[in-house]
């Protein structure tokens, strides 16, 4: 990509072969359109619904289930086969539904392109669709216009462009077409250029299009969005690993059973059906559905935390977050310029209140209200001002710097509309980037007064006197040095400084020469302030072992100051600029991100590299942002978090989570919710696994002992899908445990079934096998009735699981120390499961379907007693694992 910001306007025009006075001819524009293509952004290759479905069917466990279903149908057991296939179809549908809701970031990017542009063609200004502009087109720029494509400015008159969405710059950038910039100028420093999708807030200009479509900076972002793939989250990876392990165990045991049956001379049909039963027993068919529903319910709870989750698995990812990479403007700060300091030539004053709220006061060093002491300063910045302020809605129309001055005056009871009517503007000398000043003329108490505001150094050069507490005296060198020192102090605090002055005139003279012999009245210092709640949220993050890193396109001094106020950086810590990042290789950057918490003047590419470096260090990275420039890094992060109010459509579409209140503190609340959900998913996985492994043990031990299969496939499916899955749903709804944000994030590489859970699952599985095999053995040997024995086994298994569900509400707290029936969801699920169990046994219509029969009184009593064994096994597991 050619660096036109490093060329003069005439050199750019020569390179692009265009006459700046007449523009391109219609014929040349058509030829270039054919050569370069339309000024549109290209999308990545979209995945078809069929491709999504096939991806779902590639899962190892799903393939085992399909094989089991086919074998069942071929052997005449159609009911089992159809039920298994129904499970596969349901899981596939849920997976495709989630994937089909994938990001539409590119569509939003396309919509950001301006619909029309004013181009110079054949010497005439014509309005054309933005997609028709071509490299070499000369375009006319006016306030309110969107920039149609990347361009080199050739003319700029008081031109300001809002580039916050692209660079993160918190205030509109003053442009200067005359400058030629060095080759290494960063994106945010290219003040002789303008970029697609940004908007002109002030002034006018002219530019020559240098790049269109995918060659633009916006196109570069679109390309990064296309190239970034949706990776599996930590939970997905762990569940996939667990599934493969279960599948291998299942196939191994099936192989052993098949071999044993063959050696014993069993019928091939019986061997196959036993293998199918084992496959069904080994695979937790309800796990995927249960986890999906738990995450979906977690999404609903997240809404109460002002967080909208777009991707189910992102809920869990939040809980394992170890690093939050946050944009500054609008995320950690309010994106509302606020005056915090005033200097009147001798004294400093603090201004309370933040944002565009009129609440606040002007206070002296002792904390006393002193608005009257700075009355002249307030007059100047209020009357010499074009911003429109709505104090009720707390909104500003116009330049945010001027908006901050209007809000300041409102805090002193000076309402702009009233003052404009009382002292109407007679004439003005508009701001321009050469003078860096603006002046307006007003009739004040019968006298004509010119108020001037602007850059302190420029203003001070034109001042010959100073107004101190209403007394005008000659400006001395001592006064001048004190003012410069105050200006330097403001700058070191990352405050944007504006000077104010006035003079009485005999008549209105709107020439630049009028802005001399001024009387200095003071300085105001403003900043885009940190969100009040962000500091507390960052403190909570530190306590929870989560690092917070600020990544911004803003200036280094400003970023460091805000970082210090928020507690992100300590005194003496340094920030790293985008230029330095460009000079580092990936390995150097990986080491640097371990110790540096503030990165300034970064481009979209830098943000992506920083997020990748954090992840390469083994951390789970959350990236927050609100601008177009944040979209690629939002996609690259483990979880992207966009702002719902100030965020662009592009950032919202690229993100996994959207904050409806734009509040950094909501992220921390969402992290706590994510940790709770992960803890609940562990309970679900542990509960379901111990049941499945217990079922395998029941069938395997019975086979080894030469007994018939204790449970048929349809009974196992019933247990796995209904009497296990329903209580598992309820376990996923457990409340947050105390101290969830007082512990450090778990190791992202830690398996979901760690050593502690493996031991607990082992103990509970053995207890389950003992209870159910005991019931089966009693029915089989005492009554010599295989159907009754299987029914007793089925009853004991279901009751045992329902009782164990209450024990599984906590991995640490004993059932005898908790409020047993506190989880109302679990109570309802247990009642529903019991109703199913009773119906399957005592309604004759269901007996042939589920292979059940009525039980004798003694069989029921034995089953009820043995159903306590799995719950007691769960309590024993807690004792063993929490020693």
Automatic annotation (TrEMBL):
Principal location class? membrane
- Catalytic activity as recorded in UniProt: Ca(2+)(in) + ATP + H2O = Ca(2+)(out) + ADP + phosphate + H(+)
Q: What domain of life? A: Bacteria
One GO BP: proton transmembrane transport
KW Kinase (keyword) present: no
* Compartmental location: Cell membrane
**Xref: PROSITE patterns:** ATPASE_E1_E2
Name one molecular function that GO assigns to this entry.
Answer: ATP binding
Q: Cellular component GO terms, alphabetically?
A: plasma membrane
Q: What is its EC number?
A: 7.2.2.10
Instruction: Read off the InterPro entries from this record.
Output: ATPase_P-typ_cation-transptr_C (IPR006068), ATPase_P-typ_cation-transptr_N (IPR004014), ATPase_P-typ_cyto_dom_N (IPR023299), ATPase_P-typ_P_site (IPR018303), ATPase_P-typ_TM_dom_sf (IPR023298), ATPase_P-typ_transduc_dom_A_sf (IPR008250), ATPase_P-type_domA (IPR059000), Cation_transp_ATPase_P-type (IPR050510)
Cross-referenced Gene3D superfamilies: Calcium-transporting ATPase, cytoplasmic domain N, Calcium-transporting ATPase, cytoplasmic transduction domain A, Calcium-transporting ATPase, transmembrane domain, HAD superfamily/HAD-like
- Give every Cation-transporting P-type ATPase N-terminal domain span: 3-77
Membrane topology listed for this record: Multi-pass membrane protein
Which Pfam families does the UniProt record give? Cation_ATPase (PF13246), Cation_ATPase_C (PF00689), Cation_ATPase_N (PF00690), E1-E2_ATPase (PF00122)
Enumerate the UniProt keywords alphabetically: ATP-binding, Calcium, Calcium transport, Cell membrane, Ion transport, Membrane, Metal-binding, Nucleotide-binding, Phosphoprotein, Translocase, Transmembrane, Transmembrane helix, Transport
Q: Where are the transmembrane segments?
A: 57-75, 81-97, 245-265, 271-296, 684-705, 711-733, 758-782, 788-805, 825-843, 849-873
* Record family assignment: Belongs to the cation transport ATPase (P-type) (TC 3.A.3) family. Type IIA subfamily.
Name recorded for this polypeptide = P-type Ca(2+) transporter
Q: Which organism is it from?
A: Kineothrix alysoides
Lineage, opening ranks: Bacteria, Bacillati, Bacillota, Clostridia, Lachnospirales
């Amino acid at each position: 990509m050619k660096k036109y910001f490093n060329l003069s306007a005439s050199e750019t025009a020569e390179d692009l072969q265009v006459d700046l006075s007449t523009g391109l001819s219609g014929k040349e524009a058509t030829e270039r359109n054919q050569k370069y293509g339309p000024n549109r952004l290209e999308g990545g290759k979209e995945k078809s619904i069929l491709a999504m479905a096939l991806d779902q069917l590639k899962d190892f466990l799903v393939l085992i289930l399909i094989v089991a279903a086919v074998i069942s149908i071929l052997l005449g057991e159609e009911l089992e086969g159809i039920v298994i296939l129904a499970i596969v179809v349901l899981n596939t549908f849920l997976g495709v539904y989630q994937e089909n809701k994938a990001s539409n970031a590119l569509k939003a990017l396309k919509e950001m392109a301006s619909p029309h542009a004013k181009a110079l063609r054949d010497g005439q200004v014509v309005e054309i669709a933005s997609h028709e502009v071509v490299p070499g087109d000369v375009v006319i720029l006016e306030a309110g216009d969107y920039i149609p494509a990347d361009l080199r400015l050739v003319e700029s008159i008081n031109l300001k462009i809002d580039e916050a969405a692209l660079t993160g710059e918190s205030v509109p950038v003053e442009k200067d077409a005359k400058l030629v910039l060095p080759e290494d100028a960063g994106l945010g420093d290219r003040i002789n250029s303008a970029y697609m999708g940004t908007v002109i807030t002030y002034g006018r200009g002219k530019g020559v299009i240098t790049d269109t479509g995918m060659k633009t900076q916006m196109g570069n972002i679109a390309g990064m969005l296309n190239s970034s793939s949706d990776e599996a989250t930590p939970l997905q990876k762990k569940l996939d690993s667990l599934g493969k392990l279960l599948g291998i165990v299942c196939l191994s045991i099936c192989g052993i059973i098949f071999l044993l049956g063959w050696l014993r001379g069993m019928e091939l049909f019986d061997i196959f059906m036993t293998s199918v039963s084992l496959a069904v027993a080994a695979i937790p068919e309800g796990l995927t559905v249960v986890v999906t529903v738990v995450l979906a319910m977690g999404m609903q709870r997240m809404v109460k935390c002002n967080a909208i989750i777009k991707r189910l698995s992102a809920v869990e990812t939040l809980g394992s977050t170890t690093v939050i990479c946050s944009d500054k403007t609008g995320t950690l700060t309010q994106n509302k310029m606020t005056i915090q300091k005033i200097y009147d030539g001798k004294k400093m004053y603090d201004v309370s209140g933040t944002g565009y709220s009129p609440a606040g006061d002007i206070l002296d060093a002792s904390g006393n209200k002193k608005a009257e002491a700075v009355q002249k300063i307030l007059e100047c910045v209020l009357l010499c001002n074009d911003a429109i302020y709505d104090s009720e809605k707390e909104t500003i129309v116009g330049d945010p710097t001027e908006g901050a001055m209007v809000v300041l005056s409102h805090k002193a009871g000076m309402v702009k509309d009233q003052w404009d009517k009382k002292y109407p503007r007679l004439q003005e000398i508009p701001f321009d980037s050469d003078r860096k000043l603006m002046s307006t003329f007003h009739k004040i108490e019968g006298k004509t007064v010119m108020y001037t505001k602007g850059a302190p150094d420029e203003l001070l050069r034109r001042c010959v006197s100073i107004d101190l507490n209403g007394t005008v005296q000659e400006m001395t060198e001592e006064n001048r040095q004190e003012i410069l020192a105050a200006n330097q102090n403001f700058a070191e605090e990352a405050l944007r400084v504006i000077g104010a002055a006035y003079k009485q005139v005999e008549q209105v003279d709107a020439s630049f020469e009028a802005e001399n012999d001024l009387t200095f009245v003071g300085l105001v210092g403003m900043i885009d302030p940190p969100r009040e709640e962000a500091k507390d949220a960052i403190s909570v993050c530190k306590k929870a072992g989560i690092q917070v890193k600020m990544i911004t396109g803003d200036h280094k001094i400003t970023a460091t100051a805000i970082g210090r106020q928020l507690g992100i950086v300590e005194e003496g810590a340094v920030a790293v600029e985008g230029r330095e990042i460009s000079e580092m290789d990936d390995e150097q950057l990986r080491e640097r991100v371990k110790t540096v918490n503030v990165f300034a003047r970064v481009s979209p590419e830098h943000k992506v590299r920083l997020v990748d470096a954090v992840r390469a260090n083994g951390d789970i990275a959350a990236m927050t942002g609100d601008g177009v420039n944040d979209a690629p890094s939002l996609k690259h992060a483990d979880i992207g978090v966009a702002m719902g109010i100030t965020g662009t459509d592009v950032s919202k579409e690229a993100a996994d989570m959207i904050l409806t209140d734009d509040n950094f503190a909501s992220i921390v609340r969402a992290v706590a919710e994510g940790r709770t959900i992960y803890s609940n998913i562990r309970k679900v996985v542990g509960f379901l696994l111990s049941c499945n492994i217990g079922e395998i043990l029941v069938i395997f031990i019975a086979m080894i002992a030469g007994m018939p299969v204790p449970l048929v496939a349809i009974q196992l499916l019933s247990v796995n899908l209904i009497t296990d899955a329903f209580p598992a749903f309820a376990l996923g709804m457990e409340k947050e445990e105390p101290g969830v944000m007082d512990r450090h994030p778990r190791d992202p590489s830690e398996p979901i079934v760690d050593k502690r859970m493996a031991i607990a699952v082992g103990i509970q599985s053995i207890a389950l096998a003992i209870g159910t095999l005991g019931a089966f053995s009693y029915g089989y040997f005492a009554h010599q009735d295989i159907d009754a024995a299987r029914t007793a086994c089925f009853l004991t298994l279901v009751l045992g699981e329902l009782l164990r569900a209450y024990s599984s509400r906590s991995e640490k707290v004993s059932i005898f120390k908790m409020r047993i029936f506190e989880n109302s969801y679990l109570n309802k699920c247990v009642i529903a499961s019991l109703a199913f169990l009773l119906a399957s046994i005592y309604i004759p219509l269901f007996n042939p379907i589920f292979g059940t029969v009525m039980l004798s009184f003694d069989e029921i009593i034995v089953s009820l007693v043995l159903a306590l064994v799995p719950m007691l096994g769960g309590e024993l597991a807690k004792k063993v694992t929490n020693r």
